[in-house]
Amino acid sequence: MTSTIQVLTLGCSKNTVDTEHLLASLPSDRFMVIPEGEDVAVDYLLINTCGFIGDAKEESVNAILAAALRKKEGLVRTLYVFGCLSQRYRDELPGLIPEVDGWFGARDLGDLLRALGVEPSVKPSRRRTVPGMPYAFLKISEGCDRRCSYCAIPYIRGNHRSVPVEELVAEASELASQGVKELVLIAQDTTWYGLDLYGRRALADLLKALSEVAGIEWLRIHYSYPSAFPEDVLEQMVVNPKICKYLDIPLQHVSTRVLGNMHRGIDARKTRDIIRRVRETVPGVVLRTTMMVGFPGEDSKEFRSLLDFVREARFERLGAFTYSEEEGTWGAENLRDSIRPSTKKLRLDALMQLQREISLEFNTSRIGSEEKVLVDSYTDGVLVCRSQYESPEVDGEILVSCPDAARAATLVGQFVNVRITAADDYDLTADLIATV
Q: Nearest 10 degrees: CA dihedral of 168, 173, 174, 180?
């Protein structure tokens, strides 16, 4: 008998990878997977939760409550919850939401599969990705040995554990066989990769090994911790044409005092130095970073220094969020959340307004240029594309008019050349030139 199963995935791309591994372990003769977003009755509904910051936790709780209501209405037979929120609050949540039939942590995928009557797969490389999607996230390690004072991830995901190179190469080969052409390398800290297995930072070696996988054309690096950044990674970016000239390096702040209280292991001078070295070593690189505003004790002078730094560094991509106190962290136990929510919001708005101006300037500078892009999808007569300078799901897109639906169908998942014709704060418009 075939059971219907649906998984709702919340939070970051790391959760997406966990869901894809889970779905790949389900026997097709026993489970029919219902795509996320389809509002139909199912035998099993699984929710992969996020527990990183307040807004993410609220989203996860609301999703669970909505699912519990669906169960009461007879639209869900069995409701399971897993992931970070479940890991973090597994003692409290069962009593609060009794409609949930089982709670599983972020490290309990094997137990969740057994609850479904499935023995966990012995092939960790298997993934069930969205059909036709030309990119995929590759989680190269789990957990984190850093202890940033505001972050609960180490308590949720545990200590850093690298995935062996050979397993990642096998996973990349499996993804390439499904039509994936771009791999986005993710972890809590990709630069820490290899220390536990090989006694040294081995991200550069991993990049070389992945670049040899047939079918994989782009490799993109995310979540790179700035402290003691491995220089051989930059060297690989220069000499290896498959590595995108793109680096995600979350900095969080530039004030030495704030960075010290964040336990980031870096100060203002070294922060500026790593940005300078990356730009000098990899000409034309596009940098993405993340900043936090409203950290306890951040005064107006330190916030202005953050704005000055962003104005000086000209990050092509930047995301930001406000500090939220997370129980169990050093910051929650030792620092007073002294900044009013209204002040945090004003600072966030000011930072993002500045970034919109910088982003528009960068995008405008590309008008008239010819670029190689990967076609992700086709919607309403428009090819939705990205160059090596746009990462999926977090950056803008390059939109190319293509009224010929039959032709467009042959281009999705392929590389094409386009000429940029217009730009706004985040997205660009282009004309199709030719396939690559």
A: 110
What phi and psi values does residue 98 have, to the nearest 5 degrees? -70, -15
Long-range CB pairs of 209-215 (<8 Å, 24+ gap) are: 209/165, 209/168, 209/169, 210/138, 210/168, 210/169, 210/172, 210/183, 210/185, 211/240, 211/242, 211/243, 213/169, 213/172, 213/173, 213/176, 214/173, 214/176, 215/173, 215/176, 215/177, 215/180, 215/181
Residue 158 pLDDT level (bands cut at 50, 70, 90) = confident
pLDDT at 120: 80
CB within 8 A of 404, min separation 6: which ones?
Answer: none
pLDDT digits (tens, 9 = 90+) for 395-436: 999 999 999 999 999 999 999 999 999 999 999 999 999 766
For residue 158, give the nearest of 247, 241, 224, 88 by alpha carbon: 88
| Nearest in space to 172 (alpha carbons), one of 214, 200, 202, 208 | 214
Q: What is the pTM of this model?
A: 0.91
Who's near 87: CB < 8 A, 6+ residues apart? 51, 105, 106, 107, 108, 156, 157
Q: Alpha-carbon torsion 49, 52, 56, 58, what sign?
A: positive
Predicted local confidence at residue 123, as pLDDT:
62
Q: In whole angstroms, what is the distance from residue 78 CA to residue 158 CA?
A: 28
- 399 burial class (0-12, 13-18, 19+ CB within 10 angstroms)? middle
Q: What percent of the chain has pLDDT over 70?
A: 98
CA angle 98, 99, 100 (to 5 degrees): 90
- Sign of the alpha-carbon dihedral angle for 183, 184, 186, 191: positive
pLDDT at 436: 64
- Which residues have C-beta within 8 Å of that of residue 339, sequence separation ≥ 6? 294, 295, 296, 298, 323
| pLDDT category of residue 83 using cuts at 50, 70 and 90 | confident
d(CA 148, CA 139): 21
pLDDT at 157 (0 to 100): 84
